[in-house]
Amino acid sequence: MNPAELGMILMAIAAGAMMPIQAGVNSTLALQTHSSTMAAMISFVVGSIALAGVVMAMRLPIPAMGALKVAPWWSWTGGLLGAFFVAASVILVPKLGAATMMATFLAGQLTASVILDHFGWATFPQHDLSPGRVAGVLLLFAGVYLIRRY
Question: Where are the transmembrane segments (predicted)?
Fold first, then answer.
């Protein structure tokens, strides 16, 4: 593995580690605001402010309107998908716990990922479904069962 690949793997591990922390932080905020939806909204506002600061610091140009107009309709749904994920995590973490919630999310993520890869949807490179990939997803669901049961 070259240093660039190792850096990407470590970044992915760090991002993955942040997910249960974010769920716990947002769940705490939901307790304080008495609203899961309000906590998710505050999370997105804070994140949007942070990203606006990064964009300004990097001096990224504002995209031309023409480029935005030709983007596929579904490319605009990322924020909605993220809002659902954050809201679901705020609701689920106090009921399921971090391990069950994250294991279940991971099983869902990998199920969707092998389907996206198989068909090459949403600009992903196409990778055929294989027995190994199916077995990997099934093992993730077995992990969900074991984490939840024990």
Answer: 6-25, 37-61, 73-93, 130-147
Report pLDDT digits (tens) over 116-129: 999 999 999 999 99
Residue 16 phi, psi (nearest 5): -65, -40
Q: Which two tokens stand for residue 25?
A: 């932080």
What pLDDT, in 10s, does the model give residues 13-25? 999 999 999 999 9
- For the whole model, what pTM was predicted? 0.84
Overall size of the chain counted in residues: 150
User: Which residues in the chain come in under a pLDDT of 70?
Assistant: none
